[in-house]
Design a protein that fits this description.
Elements (H helix, E strand, L loop, with lengths): L5 H8 L12 H25 L9 E4 L6 E4 L5 E3 L11 E7 L2 E8 L5 H15 L4 E12 L2 E11 L5 E12 L2 E9 L2 H14 L4
Antiparallel strand pairs: 1-2, 3-4, 4-5, 5-9, 6-7, 7-8, 8-9
Helix pairs in contact: 1-3
């Protein structure tokens, strides 16, 4: 059996496809291609959101449709989808939203992945999706999300002129026997950091 290309393998490591690395049939390839398309659309949304002026986050509401709960800015549309399917479930799925110049993506899966490995894998997916940008690590470490051990990594993305294009923070943690990964991206570092903190501080496992 041929080895999957690097980007596909990283998507699987993140838990965004429920197939084994060593079992890649044509159906799995179609599913992964769909996931890659979702990554590309998220990147496009991040670029549009980053061009907006950061706005203060006012009141928040609690999103709790799939067992966990997450604070989101009031009035912001939250989009959910499965991992290669139309609908998310309690076992796996993804949420995306954009507000105040910041785009957030949350992915969950029943696969168990070490938080640090999930963070590194998510960053490599972004690097692969944006070959025109140079990604540089800003900081990394451990933290707590709902009293659970989590890992995080912050990065800056630079264009060919070495001008800062966007900044982002990736976090990952275990919850309910599975793994959660969150990516927050935007042009304003303060807005990205405050949004990431708000999402992770308010997250609650099932």
């Amino acid at each position: 059996m041929n080895t999957l290309p690097a980007r596909r393998a990283l998507l699987l490591v993140l838990g965004v496809a429920a197939v084994a690395l060593s079992a890649c049939g044509s159906k799995d390839d179609d599913r992964i291609a769909d996931l890659e398309g979702r990554v590309d659309r998220l990147e496009a949304a991040a670029k549009v959101s980053a061009s907006a002026s950061p706005t203060p986050v006012g009141k928040t509401t609690t999103y709790k449709e799939f067992g966990f709960s997450l604070p989101v800015p009031e009035g912001v549309e939250v989009k959910s989808a499965g991992l290669g399917t139309a609908k998310a479930s309690k076992d796996e799925g993804q949420l995306t939203m954009s507000a105040g110049g910041v785009t957030m993506a949350l992915i969950w899966t029943k696969q168990t992945i070490a938080p640090k490995d999930a963070v590194q894998g998510a960053l490599q997916v972004l690097v692969s999706a944006q070959p025109a940008l140079t990604f540089r690590p800003l900081s990394e470490g451990d933290m707590k999300v709902d009293n659970r051990t989590a890992a995080y990594g912050a990065f800056g993305a630079y264009d060919k002129q070495q001008a800062l294009s966007s900044v982002g923070v990736i976090g990952a943690w275990s919850c309910g026997g599975g793994t959660f990964s969150i990516t927050v991206v935007g042009a304003n570092q303060a807005a990205v950091e405050s949004s990431y903190t708000g999402f992770t501080d308010g997250f609650r496992c099932a």
